[in-house]
Specification:
alpha+beta
Length: 294
């Protein structure tokens, strides 16, 4: 019993529940001692002629049992505390409907991803995904049916992202996705897979049309704020909706020193002066449609 309990407790991740290993070691050691103590008594009776040693061995067995029970009880209390802490943390970070990161947790992870991108000078695409005509979906399927649509979309998205990608629900029918240390092209490929799979899903019931998504994509520019970064992705999603929905739109900033920007030289004579050429700001968007419905 103790050995089986120890093996069961030890199964899992040390990082998730460190106290489980303390409890497992104590239970395993106690189980091994329980198996060996009969042999120990027989060996002691055959080798030791002193009768005073028998009570001493009995006292040692009782002491070991008491210490083992105390340590096991302490380990169980630690396990209960760790489990409660983990459950509370999950409730604080996860969206209860879709089981993805909620808004608060996602924004915290977004700050960390931006800090990492600054340190490593790596690329960082972010996506804003919005379900099209979600009010119509709720009207046709009811709120429970709308919840099922959200859950299905979350499953589709999670099946198409990597373990290191960060996916969360911003609110309502709007979701966010971060691709740490990823170039734009792989991010766009993932966007298109998600869009196509959501559109292709056959919904049963009263839903009269397909469920589609509009996706806005942008990349982080070193030095810009989180608000500028996120607003540009949100603008791309708005453009996807204005352009007919069910498509992916990229909103890329024009960087300083872009070779596509040219400035004519200003004449020396004041009479021939023409208005100065207006340069785009470092974050002026360059828009292009990555994909759209067929």
């Amino acid at each position: 019993f103790y050995g089986l309990s120890a093996a069961t407790l030890a199964h899992g991740g040390m990082q998730a529940y460190p106290a489980r290993y303390l409890t497992a070691i104590v239970m395993g050691a106690h189980g091994a001692f329980v198996l060996l103590r009969t042999l120990l008594f027989k060996l002691q009776m055959s080798l030791v002629q002193d009768a005073d040693m028998v009570p001493a061995l009995s006292q040692f067995v009782i002491l070991e049992a008491i210490m083992a029970l105390v340590l096991i009880a302490f380990g169980i209390l630690m396990l209960a505390n760790e489990f409660t802490h983990s459950a509370l943390r999950r409730l604080a970070e996860m969206d209860p409907l879709t089981s993805v990161f909620n808004r608060r947790a996602f924004l915290t992870l977004l700050d960390k991803a931006i800090s990492q991108a600054r340190r490593t000078q790596s690329e960082l695409p972010v996506l804003v995904i919005d379900l099209d005509h979600f009010k119509r979906i709720n009207d046709e399927l009811g709120h429970l049916g709308g919840d099922e649509v959200l859950r299905h979309f979350a499953r589709v998205a999670q099946e198409n992202v990597r373990a290191g990608d960060i996916f969360g629900r911003y609110g309502g029918e709007e979701f966010l996705l971060i691709f740490p240390a990823t170039s734009l092209l792989p991010a766009l490929n993932t966007c298109e897979r998600i869009r196509a799979q959501v559109e292709a899903h056959a919904w049963k019931g009263l839903l009269r049309g397909k469920v589609t998504v509009s996706i806005g994509v942008t990349q982080y520019v070193p030095g810009e704020s989180v608000l500028e970064f996120f607003s540009r992705a949100d603008t791309a999603t708005y453009l996807a909706k204005e352009g007919g929905r069910n498509q992916v739109v990229v909103e890329e900033p024009t960087r300083k020193g872009d070779p596509s920007v040219t400035v004519e030289p200003i004449p020396d004579e004041e009479d021939d002066l023409e208005p100065e050429a207006t340069l785009p700001s470092p974050l002026e968007p360059e828009r292009r449609f990555a994909s759209s419905r067929g």
